[in-house]
Input
Amino acid sequence: MSKLFSPIQIGGLHLKNRLVAAPMCQYSAVDGVIQPWHWQHLGVLAISGVSVVIVEATGVVPEGRISPGDTGLWDDRQEAAFARLIKDIASYSDTPVGIQLAHAGRKASTHRPWQDKGGPLAPGDGAWTTYAPSPIPFNDGWHTPAALDQAGMDRLVEAFVAAAQRADRAGFALAELHGAHGYLISEFLSPIANHRTDDYGGSLENRMRFPLRIAEAVRAVWPRSKALGMRLNGSDWVEGGITPEETAEVSARLQGLGLDYVHISSGANAARAVMPWKEPGYQVGFAETVKHRCPDLPVIAVGMIAGAHQAEAILDEGKADMIALARALLDDPRWPHHAAETLEAGADAASPWPVQYQRAAGAAWPGRALRDFG
Ligand SMILES: Cc1cc2nc3c(=O)[nH]c(=O)nc-3n(C[C@H](O)[C@H](O)[C@H](O)COP(=O)(O)O)c2cc1C
Output
């Protein structure tokens, strides 16, 4: 009996299996509004056989976008386009769609990754003021952010709430607050980016105050019939960064506030950090630390999980409850279906193949036998 293909309850969401399509920025929106590319990208993921698809980091305010191509959810056009997308997906797939709500903090106002290596925008390129816990740039030559004051923080809590309300109305079934990768929430949590001397800096209790305020405020408006979680860094991969034990403590506090899951990633908070990102399961140990501290809180593991048996073992060994895939799904959007076959989990373990594609499913196409997947 495959654990990877067994159902799980996350808050009010009943999910068919343990596979999640991880949020992936496409840098292809216009004024924060999704475009035809997003229909194909998310449509493909919705028929991949995962049990839930999470839409990319989406800015809750314009200045909270990483690049001008990021999706946003602060106005009616953005909300209406997402609502259309979700309705369209529901016409051919029963896979629920979630969204990652984000503020890029000091790493906002950059080029798309394929332009100038994603470096900071110049004033002539439309650069905007960035905001962070402390006025410390991410790296040499990056924008020096303005330190958020109390009124700025209050406004951002409201912006997260307003974006969550829009996400609910648009039909998203899950909301994930982006607290990882050196963006705003992650910056508050990490001593690397947070040098504040007020109630929001210093001790872990202080560093998590603003992230917990956001979580609590969004929890108050996000329906219990859906799922609400946060993505967190288990490590910044540099001396003096956040530790797995601190992340486990933050997770316990989020659970106390009624969040339904945490999603444990790492890195991207310090330009000098060296991440072992080619190592299989390089972040799974952080998920395990959180799972140990919060046995009843669903934990998603992510990062270089590429094999069916590898994913199954992570769950079997109790290191996490779900597995998120990013690059594996871009490489092979039929990964979950192939994994179900490899694990002999049964034909319907992943969401069924679309009828239109059934001539390529399972034993129907002899070429499948030539493919080595495990
Ligand atoms: C194209 C691309 C875009 C990404 N965008 C996001 C994002 O919007 N939010 C986020 O939290 N992580 C983002 N990530 C990180 C992935 O969600 C994932 O954590 C990471 O790629 C490791 O998982 P993998 O080894 O399965 O790719 C992105 C990754 C890729 C490849």
Summary: The domain at 8-370 is CATH 3.20.20.70 (TIM Barrel). The radius of gyration is 20 Å.
